[in-house]
Design goal:
The protein has 10 helices and 7 strands. The chain is an alpha+beta fold.
């Protein structure tokens, strides 16, 4: 960690950093630079110098794979096959695995493991979590693709504005939510690296960065393709409840009402 401060010297080992006193210890170093006159309005101006310093705090020592294994064993974690453990640590970082052995520790400050804790159990937890995430992400992708298609089809074909329906606040419950979602849509389209998005920006001579600068807006079937699941979910939930298209989208996705679909989308978004 590297920080840059102005400080005041008390004595050889004590310094005042903007009302915070820092003591020089074994893991803290001060490299002094540019001795400057102390501002006269400071109450400690007499007998002190204003010193520009670079303040280093030592990070933890980097450890090799073998040293990581030794450390885990010293802390009480059983490792049956050191070669296999080393292979896992080469491909899965120590700190990624740390979350899976956290509750195996009986002393969280000293990081001492409970008796009987095994590295192999840590890997089983990691693999279970990885496989569960793959199943969930596959399911979420199906929901996302279906929501995107139904928003595009039902709203574009069911509104007089057709592909530009998302620009009309009349379809949304709240003006504030409408403006927020529109800004997110435009920002995500502006950042998209999809070929169709790049072509549209070039064709319309737009300068897209983090904001919208074009007088021409893409149709819903373009701009919604670059929207994140979170943005799509918010757009659907903010549609007016009495809109027949909102109920139609829910029915097409297998839900009885728009409330059921909105609840599902909210739960999935948290995942």
């Amino acid at each position: 960690m590297l920080l840059f401060y102005s400080c005041y010297k008390y004595n050889e080992n004590h310094w005042d950093f903007s009302m915070v006193r820092v003591e020089r210890e074994g893991n803290v170093w001060f490299i002094l630079k540019n001795v400057l006159p102390l501002p006269q309005q400071n109450p400690f101006a007499s007998h002190k110098n204003c010193i520009r310093v670079i303040f280093f705090m030592a990070n933890k020592k980097a450890r090799t794979i073998q040293e990581q294994i030794v450390l885990l064993r010293d802390r009480g974690l059983q490792i049956k096959e050191e070669r296999i453990a080393a292979s896992y640590l080469e491909h899965i970082s120590y700190y990624r695995l740390k979350g899976y052995w956290w509750n195996m520790q009986e002393n969280l400050e000293q990081h001492i493991f409970k008796p009987g804790s095994c590295f192999e159990d840590v890997i089983e937890r990691y693999n279970f979590d990885r496989e569960l995430r793959q199943i969930l992400f596959d399911a979420i992708e199906v929901i996302e693709v279906s929501l995107r298609a139904n928003l595009i089809n039902c709203m574009s074909c069911g509104c007089s504005q057709e592909g530009l329906w998302y620009l009309s606040s009349e379809f949304f419950e709240s003006e504030n939510y409408f403006l927020q979602n529109l800004e997110k849509l435009r920002r995500e389209f502006a950042r998209s690296q999809e070929v169709f998005a790049k072509d549209f920006r070039e064709e319309h001579q737009s300068k897209y960065e983090d904001h919208w600068e074009s007088k021409d807006d893409p149709d819903a079937w373009l701009i919604l393709e670059t929207a994140t699941f979170g943005t799509l979910s918010k757009i659907y939930k903010s549609l007016k409840h009495q809109l027949p298209q909102k109920a139609k989208i829910a029915n097409k996705m297998g839900f009885y009402s728009h409330k059921d679909l909105s609840s599902c989308l909210e739960a999935v978004a948290y995942v």
